[in-house]
Amino acid sequence: MMLQRAQINTPLGEMTVVVNQTCVQELWFSDMPLPKTQSAQATQLSSWTQNPIMVQVQAWLQAYFAGSQPDLTNILMTPSGTTYQQDVWHITQQIPVGQTWTYRQLQTQLQAQRLPSGSPRSLGGALSKNPILILIPCHRVIGSDGRLTGYAGGLWRKQKLLAMEQKSRNQN
To answer: Rounded to two decimals, what is the model's pTM?
Structure first.
């Protein structure tokens, strides 16, 4: 399948989105040192409007950063990762906007669904490999003591995302 890549401006910096004809494969802040697994093979688009999936992502991000809680059900995602990473990312998508879970709560949710739960360290490792930031909300996972812990996009972004979501949740 042909991959396409474009940049989208957000209040927290430029993001790069990689899509195929049907779904999102990557979404990350362009200044991140993450290994971009698919983007090297993707064709750079001169405009995100050339692809309907990118239009969906752009509209979702605009609504999200405007303070609403847009629905993700129409945006298909196929992040590349191991089965364990996929399980962790899937469960992470169940964390409601404006809420956080600790690594232990995430572990409990995996166990409840009879999935390998791993240790807090392995959960952190899986979350750090999340190739679709914000849409797969790994920023909502915090340390057991309530502290903000690692976020591939930077702790300052994690803090801003959580504050924005809490404000949005309180207004809705």
So the answer is: 0.91
CA gap 33, 162 in Å, rounded? 22
Q: Is the pLDDT of residue 49 over 80?
A: no
- The single-letter DSSP state of residue 98 is T
Domain of residue 48, residue span: 4-65
Helix axis angle, 103-112 to 83-92, nearest 10° = 110
Pairing of the two strands 43-44 and 24-29: unpaired
Nearest to 137, CA basis, from 101, 84, 107: 101
Q: At what angle do helices 83-92 and 120-128 cross, to 10 degrees?
A: 90
Do residue 53 and residue 109 come from a single domain?
Answer: no
Find the farthest-apart pair of alpha carbons in the chain and give their distance in angstroms, rounded.
45
Read off the pLDDT of residues 59-103 as tens digits, 9 standing for 90 and up. 999 999 999 888 898 999 999 999 999 999 999 999 999 899 999
Task: List, by residue number, the catalytic residues.
Answer: 138
